[in-house]
Every structure is written in structure tokens, then in C-alpha cells.
Design brief:
This protein is α/β, with parallel strands linked by helices. The chain contains 10 helices and 10 strands. It has helices at about 5-20, 40-50, 75-85, 100-105, 140-155, 160-185, 205-210, 225-240, 255-265, 290-305, and strands at about 35-40, 55-60, 85-90, 110-115, 125, 130, 195-200, 210-215, 245-250, 270-275. The strands form 4 sheets. Strands 2-1-3-4 form a 4-stranded parallel beta sheet, with helices on both faces.
Length: about 325
């Protein structure tokens, strides 16, 4: 039986409430170590792992290649959330159909939306729908990491010394990442600093690192690109002689390939410059399976393709 999204969310919420019961919220952790933390996306989970160290085991609900905008929570997710001692998620409506469930958790256990700590003045979009892709700017994502750090200290104050030390290391690593990204993008000739992707997930990246960004779809992949959107982007590629476009690991390649074909029909060859990580990181155990490795990969891929060194198009 097919249910509309709002009803599906309600059903999931009621199922979660039944699983979690009415256990009271405790301010501080008093159980065994390592405690169980659950994160929604890999980007959130990686930050929590870096800060928590061996004091926690962190489970990510969404693995590599999973689109959080479209993710539908299953019973396994509800069981993981039930068993968690503390939950971390991005927020700003990134998690789509899970948003109601995650917000409802706060009555039974610590549930922290780390990206919602970022001041609204630094967010893109409007008060009704902020762009949730804040991890594309390392300086903004550090603010989210600081929210995760504060949440861990409040939940487990006995671990504060460890959390503080790990956070200091993370700050240094994030500052170095931010510098690398700025310098690499600045090496692209100014007129060539244009990034065309499957959906509008890179606006924070563009603002932070000085590259013009254009997505075929909107900030959520729940929106559909129409023929007018494709034609408009093809016109832009041809007129500005843009050499490369990029697919995303968690989004269908269909629209990007339509751009390549449309430009070819107009006599302009466009390469697929590579695959970028937007709403999900790479596979666990790979460099791209960490936040810093993911952003490094994106920067290197963009620079090589846009500067014409290494597109892998057809």
C-alpha cells in the first residue's frame, strides 16, 4: 500500500515511540563504556568519532552512496536508535523523512542536530528552508563539530579531557584542510572557476573557496529537473565554453549525461570531470570515507578537470 510522505513519517514516528517507550531523559551518562552513539550521515559520524575516540562506538545509519534527502528509515534504523545512548544528526531538514523522528527523540535521549548550531546569518537559503549542505565549507562544519563536542561533554563530563584534546587536533586538521582548498581553487584561472554538478549541494563550497557553482536540480534531490533546466544549462556550457561537468556519488548521473549530450549536439565537447561526494562520503576504510579525505578528493577532482589536466569524460 502506498502512503503519502507525511503519513509515512507519522507511521515511522509512532513506531519509534513504541520501540523507545517513555524512558526519562538523563542528563549524564552512567553506563558502561564504550557507550553507543548513532549518527545519521557519514559526515556527522566521522566528526563524532574524531572527538569521542575510544569512549564511544559510532554507528552511521546511512552508508556510502546513500542520499539523505530521499532516505526512508526502516525497522533496523529504529532499532539502532532505540539502542543508542546518544544520537547525532545534521539537521536543517537534510535528513528529509527522518526529520520528525529525530526531533521526537529528544524526550527520551540526547539527540543533537549539530548543523543547527551554525548562526543563521551564515546559512544560505531562507528561514523556511536553509541550505543544509554546510559541510562543504570546512570552517562552517567546524562549528557543527564544536556542537558535537559540547554535546559529548554534557552527556559524558568524565570524558571532557579526552574530548577537549581530540577537538584541538580536529581544529588543526580542519584549518589545514580549509587552507588547502582555498589555495587549490585559487590556482584555477579566474574565468574558469565554474562548477556544474547534478544538484545544488556546493553553494557553501563556492562561497567559501571562490568558485561559481551551478546545479541542475535544487538543494534537495526530491525536486526534479525539467527540460527547461537542462536546456538552460546546455546553453550556459556552450556559451561559456565550460570544459567539464561533474556527477555525484549519491545522485543519478542521468541529468549530467543529458548535459554532455546536449552540448555535443551544439558542437561543444564537455567532459565528465569525475565523481564528487556531495550528500554522502566514500566507502568506509578509504581516504574518501573520512570527512577530510572526502573534501580533499572533491577539491583535487575539480581542479584537475577544470584546469584540463585529467577529465575522464567521453
Amino acid at each position: 500500500m502506498h502512503f503519502p510522505p507525511a503519513l509515512r513519517a507519522l507511521i515511522c514516528f509512532l513506531a519509534l515511540a513504541a520501540l523507545l517507550g517513555a524512558a526519562p531523559l538523563r542528563a549524564e551518562y552512567a553506563g558502561a563504556y564504550p557507550f553507543k552513539a548513532v549518527a545519521t550521515t557519514g559526515m556527522v559520524g566521522d566528526m563524532v568519532r574524531r572527538i569521542a575516540g575510544e569512549r564511544a562506538t559510532v554507528t552511521d545509519l546511512m552508508s556510502a552512496g546513500i542520499d539523505p534527502h530521499l532516505y526512508k528509515p526502516g525497522r533496523g534504523d529504529l532499532i539502532a536508535l532505540k539502542g543508542a545512548d546518544i544520537v547525532f544528526y545534521s539537521g536543517l531538514k537534510l535528513e528529509g523523512q527522518m526529520s520528525e523522528i529525530l526531533a521526537g527523540l529528544s524526550t527520551s535521549k540526547p539527540s543533537i542536530a549539530i548543523a543547527e548550531a551554525i548562526p543563521s546569518a551564515r546559512l544560505l537559503g531562507d528561514d523556511h528552508h536553509h541550505d543544509p549542505h554546510v559541510w562543504m565549507d570546512a570552517a562552517l562544519w567546524l562549528l557543527a563539530a564544536e556542537k558535537a563536542h559540547a554535546g559529548l561533554v554534557t552527556f559524558d563530563p568524565k570524558g571532557k579531557t579526552i574530548y577537549d584534546a581530540n577537538m584541538e587536533i580536529l581544529k588543526k586538521d580542519m584549518a589545514a584542510l580549509d587552507t588547502r582548498a582555498r589555495e587549490a581553487i585559487a590556482s584555477i584561472p579566474k574565468e574558469a572557476r565554474v562548477l556544474v554538478t547534478a544538484h545544488d549541494a556546493f553553494s557553501y563550497f563556492g562561497r567559501a573557496y571562490g568558485i561559481e557553482v551551478m546545479g541542475i536540480q535544487g538543494i534537495s534531490t526530491e525536486s526534479e529537473a525539467g527540460l527547461q533546466d537542462i536546456n538552460r544549462m546546455v546553453e550556459l556550457l556552450v556559451t561559456r565554453k565550460i570544459p567539464a561537468v561533474f556527477v555525484e556519488s549519491s545522485v543519478s548521473e542521468k541529468n549530467v549525461r543529458a548535459l554532455v549530450e546536449g552540448a555535443a549536439a551544439r558542437g561543444h565537447k564537455v567532459a565528465i570531470g569525475g565523481s564528487l561526494f556531495s550528500d554522502a562520503m566514500g566507502k568506509a576504510g578509504t581516504p574518501q570515507g573520512t570527512y577530510i579525505g572526502m573534501l580533499d578528493h572533491n577539491v583535487e577532482t575539480i581542479v584537475k578537470a577544470v584546469k584540463g589536466k585529467e577529465g575522464n569524460g567521453e
